[in-house]
Amino acid sequence: MTTDTTTGMRVRPTALAGLGVFLLYLALIVLVQSTSGVDYDDLAASSQNIWRFGILSLGVGALAVTALTVWFGWWRAATVETVRSRKRWTLVAPAIYLAVALGNLVVTDWGALEIGFVLSAVVLGVTVGFAEELTTRGTLLVGLRGTMREIAVWATTCVLFGAMHGLNIVFGAEVGSTLQQVVVAGMQGSAFYVLRRVLGRLAWAMALHGLWDFSIFTQSAAPGGDNVLGLLVLPTALLSVVAGFVVARDAGRRSAGEPHEAAKP
């Protein structure tokens, strides 16, 4: 396919193209994790399991999505929001998630964890944040924007982000808790969407996503106490949905004629 000289994109953004990359990512995750010899519930049993089951599969998926995003000519569109939302109050939702994550780190019994395990968990967090955000709120989002209105883009990325966590059932995760995770993750994805839209960079969503997963993973592996801020997770998930809806709706209204605020380079 020839390059579009007006956009610099080799492939025109469409929902079909975005969904194709998303499904390829999931297929690679399933392929690598299913051949790792590690069950989902044993992920935190050792540093080796973290690498074999988590980091390797996410890394392979991230490489594939990165390569396709660059080849499509979508990299800048996937990682930079050229039109930022001015609804800055919506940043309250990701800010609360940040506070909860830091609280998790405070109550973690770090003395019970080996340094190799912690370093592996750091790499896992970075890889999760990069891979899942580029796939859903990066490449998938760009493709959906070529076909859908922003409200539908926001809703679809949140739903699919939540649904992708359902794959854990295939690898032995308990069905009930996984379905709960699907719902909560989908709602939390709205907070990551807000970060992209308001701050103008996907990197902010990647950073918070990675820190969140790292804090949950290490706190679960070595609980040293209760994080009372954890009580805020459910209300924050609800707030995230409201915030994401407001930001997405704002985009639709402004595209109809209101002035835009360009993201800083």
TrEMBL record:
Keyword Hydrolase applies: yes
Annotated CAAX prenyl protease 2/Lysostaphin resistance protein A-like domain residues: 117-214
Molecular function as annotated in GO: hydrolase activity
KW Nucleotidyltransferase (keyword) present: no
Transmembrane regions: 53-77, 89-107, 113-131, 151-171, 228-248
Pfam families, per the entry: Rce1-like
Domain of life: Bacteria
Alphabetized UniProt keyword annotations: Hydrolase, Membrane, Transmembrane, Transmembrane helix
E.C. number(s) listed in UniProt: 3.4.-.-
Protein name: CPBP family intramembrane glutamic endopeptidase
Organism listed in the record: Isoptericola haloaureus
Taxonomy of the source species: Bacteria, Bacillati, Actinomycetota, Actinomycetes, Micrococcales
